[in-house]
Prior knowledge:
The complex is a heterodimer.
Chain A: H1 5-18, H2 21-41, E1 50-55, H3 60-68, E2 73-78, H4 80-89, E3 94-97, E4 103-105, H5 111-127, H6 148-178, H7 181-186, H8 192-222, H9 230-252, H10 258-275, H11 290-295, H12 297-309, H13 319-339
Parallel strand pairs in A: 1-2, 1-3
Antiparallel strand pairs in A: 3-4
Helix pairs in contact in A: 1-8, 2-6, 2-8, 6-8, 6-9, 6-10, 6-12, 8-9, 9-12, 9-13, 12-13
Chain B: E1 8-17, E2 20-30, E3 35-39, H1 46-53, E4 61-66, H2 71-81, E5 82-85, H3 97-106, H4 114-120, H5 136-148, E6 154-158, H6 166-181, E7 185-190, H7 193-199, E8 202-207, E9 210-215, H8 217-222, E10 228-234, H9 243-247, E11 252-258, E12 261-266, H10 269-279, E13 286-293, H11 296-304
Parallel strand pairs in B: 3-7, 3-8, 5-6, 6-7
Antiparallel strand pairs in B: 1-2, 1-4, 8-9, 10-12, 10-13, 11-12
Helix pairs in contact in B: 3-4, 5-6
Amino acid sequence: MASHPLWQLTITRFREFLREPEAVFWVFAFPVLLACALGLAFRSQGPPEVLAGVLAGPAAAGMEQTLATGGGMRVRTLDRPQADVALRHGAIHVLVIPGDPVTYEFDPSRPESRVARYVIDERVQAAAGREPAVRAADRPVTVAGSRYIDWVVPGLLGMNIMGTGMWGVAFSVVQARVRKLLKRLMATPMLRSHYLLSHMLSRLLFLVLEVTALLGFARLVFGIPMNGSLFTLAGFCLLGAVTFSGLGLLVASRAKTVEGVSGLMNLVMVPMWIFSGVFFASENFPDAMQPFISLLPLTALNEALRGVMIDGAGVTALVTQAAILLTWTLLSFTAALRMFRWR
Amino acid sequence: MSAAEPALRCRGLVKRYGDVVAVDGLELEVHRGECFGLLGPNGAGKTTTIEILEGLLSPDAGDVQVLGMRWEHDASRLRQRLGIQLQETQLSDKLSVEEVLRLFRSFYSQGPAVDELIASVGLDTKRTAWYSKLSGGQKQRLAIACALTGDPDLLFLDEPTTGLDPQSRRQVWDLLRGLKQQGRTILVTTHYMDEAHAICDRVAIVDQGKVIAQGTPTELIASLGAEHVVAFALRDGVELPAEAALLRLPGVRRASLHDGGGTLIVSHLHEALPALLRAVQAPDPFSLLTTHSATLEDVFMSLTGRQLREE
């Protein structure tokens, strides 16, 4: 076993990777840091506060008192120029001008301003003695998996599987070609299939580590949900890794320089970062583009990962995504093997 | 393979790159157990030839037999029995000597243990050192160790000492002599005539894709018909004697003239030198006058009229 060429090639790839500190950072630390940053930016902390402004004047103090009663609202008294700036910057949602009638100034295109207008009006009316016509009670419910961080972590996982899969294979293949190491290996009895397989196998070793690192972190720190089976999730991670190794191999199959392969790599990856729903839903793009977007391998992988983690979907619900990934795998490997330049 | 069969034979080898003919009908025969040198200037077609013999390039025409086998039919069997060092391979920077050899060893069905290989090229103190930390000579010895991992019958070494300092070159030579003593056949390319003389049993001088002379280094030098070389240059204004006049001088076998000077190949230095001094009728005429024993460099020059290495 220890002297089998496939094992030796795999362990060699593994060593080369671990001895490259930058590579270790981009594969393991970067996605965790990114998840961390996104989690902080979009953390949920109860219902959002209403930011109200009161225009300075004789009745301002009374109005400020009325609005502040009950909490959940930040109230400031502002003069006209200050109020204009604050409205423009979104530092206040609504400007209240006391008088008869009480006037609410706000930009109706901002959803939070429209909500704030009704919350403020409610307090103003209640303070004036209005009784509710119908008794109502609130029961706040937090649905697991509805937060942004729950949605973005599977996307980050998909993006990471794509990035490491493509870079891991393409970079080392092209470097071996540039250094004439590929040619030297061709001068030994080494089997070409062993060389290519070793890249896949070492990818799988890394995959276990990087998926564990990112998901473990996101689970511990943000408590992201895992509603489906871990087995199905592992299966899709594996399929994704194989798909993107194939694409990496294809991109590297003829490139003669590291710069050349970097360019090709960006050509393939950047569109998928944008279209495949990593940071924002791909439904934001026009309907006409949707059929193409849904055929991209990262779209399929992200849909599958979100399906398993958030919706608890099983394999049967994700057959389409699995089929898209398998098709990409077959096409890219076939093309890569046909085009591969061994010298 | 019978004992009489050559380790390597090629006939009418041709390789073209576009309009450029890199190898032009080259013929070679390497006997078992000898160290055979392909000597020639850069661009003579040595590397193309050796890569065809190694099965890494296919020729446009010609016939190649290695260890009695052919690349078309027996590639995988041949690969197990050949040891190859390429001119410009860079191994992975961040792998140790031991890890590199363990990897290469895994490709061969038989061969020495990794420890033995490390000892045989004298890298014991460097076994855990990364490739990037090795000196040029140590890298080259590791490359040779990689070529030895399958205990090969036939070794191909492409310019194994190019770019090395004199001490490292000698270490590589010692290593190659040791390998020859183990009965291995070695085909080595070089553009250093002293290297060919030091390690090769037989040499083929290659120029413009053809073998232009072949034999033992001693035979090739003897083919000059004399064993001393006189090189001279004259001061400005001193008239150069005619080539025919120089050839008539006692002990001179060959003469070639160039701008303001010339080279004589002579058999009896004690006769030729005074005669040359007499032939040039001027007070203090020489800006340069040196003599040396004839080398393969002189053989190349007398065959092509050019220097082996343009410096």
